[in-house]
Amino acid sequence: MTTQRTRSLGRPTLDAVAARAGVGRGTVSRVVNGSPQVSPEARAAVQAAIAELGYVPNRAARALVTQRTDSVALVVSESGERVFTEPFFAGIVRGVSSGLLDTPMQLWLAMVQSPLERERVVHHLTNQHVDGVLLLSLHDADPLPTLLEERGLPTVLGGRPARMLKPGAPPAWYVDVDNVGGARQAVEHLARQGRRRIAHIAGPQDMGAGVARLAGYREAVRAAGAGTDEDLVAYGDFTEGSGTACMRRLLEIRPDLDAVFVASDLMAFGALRTLREAGRRVPEDVAVVGFDDAPIARQAEPPLTTVFQPVEEMGRQMARLLVSRISGEEVPSRHVLLPTELVHRASA
After folding, report:
1. Domains of the chain and any CATH numbers
2. What is the pTM of this model?
3. Residue 226 has pLDDT above 80, yes or no
């Protein structure tokens, strides 16, 4: 009844909480802002008063004092359709949300593909709106990383753009997976089975993952003595449709191929369907390995051998690195490189 009566008189203030808890206004402010410089007894009294009075902190006023918005942005350079349908993006969002769980940070998500979307998002990405930014699915021509650093906004990349894989690339804060090593594992597995005409359906070459997985493929086929024949490489865009089109093209140019390493599970799903339509048995005629270990890999026919990448852990590490940057905390490295692992199923 006390709470109901208090709420009816208007929004409870910091002073009202202090009076109810029997502490000073500064103590209430420190509790609300998460400061450790409060005794357990005082913290408990303030929290009880907040619950009783229904006090909600004024975020705008708090931002004036702390110079923080307690908000971070996850900006994905893809269409909303891809973000909400492809498992990779869902895994990243789950990981980022998990990584922010023990912080006061709120996450907002933006998809940037059209010029209008880009203009709107760029206008919003200032320190008046967010404390930091996570960037995902970057293409080489994307100016956002440079723009945000010039604005002084802490930024962490999910995966490196292709240009950052080159010697002398500018330093950046990023979390990535071992794309080269994962691709190498996939091709070595195929080579150990006696496959000698190993094709590759590559990802976009303006994205770091596409470039790195192609590099791992080339390293492994050279090491296996199978030769690097450009007729055995086709370029997709990580979508199922591009996997279908690339597999058709490879079968037309190199009908003698006996294996294919595909740079994403969605593309591999399309490739499997094309092989089935062409009357090629998997794995007897053509062995197939994908990359991601997405749920679709287990549902494929036959179930897909693939390279596992820890997508949710990638999101968690992105959030952890960004929070460290925002708080000014010392970290051992600007970079986190997560391991990959080959998952054996029936397609290879």
Report:
1. 2-66 (1.10.260.40), 71-176+312-337 (3.40.50.2300), 179-310 (3.40.50.2300)
2. 0.80
3. no
